[in-house]
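Quick one, probably user error.
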């Protein structure tokens, strides 16, 4: 058996504001989902009414409630115990399922939006690279897949545009090798 641990495992992190915007967004998304899961578990295990309203650092609002966000808020504001009605419970369960599905869809849409924003950033960097006349002088091993594809296309286009030396001379009006041979022969 090996004598030691190969990884450090889970480590405690210092709780302070994350300065990297991308890391902060990823952490927010994961922890928000964790909060929603814990709220659902609290309702499922104990029957507790739970409401969460979260404002993201970018100003987006996320809400979550069991059995229903508005029911919990109304109960809190009025301090009236809920009515134990089977129809109402069924409606609230249906609403909470819809809210959960909508929150999941919203999370997926936000994640897709973040991916597209990153792609847009990558494309912007690529455009800047194209505008820079020395982009082709970068080391090939430092280019990503998109940049390599762009370099390949540029080289193929350059290859198409290279004219044979004889054709180039004709364009410039100088005699070609064939014409020179004909002129020198008696």
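Nope, works fine. Designed sequence:
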């Amino acid at each position: 058996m090996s004598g030691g641990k190969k990884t450090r495992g889970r480590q405690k992190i210092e709780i302070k504001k994350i300065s990297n915007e991308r890391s902060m967004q990823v952490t927010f998304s994961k922890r928000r989902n964790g909060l929603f899961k814990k709220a659902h578990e609290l309702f499922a295990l104990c029957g507790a009414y739970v409401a969460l309203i979260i404002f993201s650092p970018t100003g987006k609002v996320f809400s979550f409630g069991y059995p229903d966000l508005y029911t919990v808020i109304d109960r809190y504001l009025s301090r009236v115990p809920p009515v134990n009605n089977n129809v109402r419970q069924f409606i609230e369960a249906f609403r909470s399922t819809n809210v959960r599905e909508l929150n999941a869809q919203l999370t997926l849409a936000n994640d897709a939006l973040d991916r597209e924003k990153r792609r847009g950033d990558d494309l912007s960097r690529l455009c800047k690279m194209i505008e820079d006349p020395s982009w082709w002088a970068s080391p090939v091993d430092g280019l990503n897949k998109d940049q390599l594809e762009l370099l390949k296309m540029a080289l193929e286009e350059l290859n198409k545009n290279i004219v044979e030396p004889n054709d180039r001379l004709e364009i410039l009006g100088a005699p070609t090798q064939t014409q020179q041979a004909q002129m020198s022969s008696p």
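The two ends are 92 Å apart (CA to CA).
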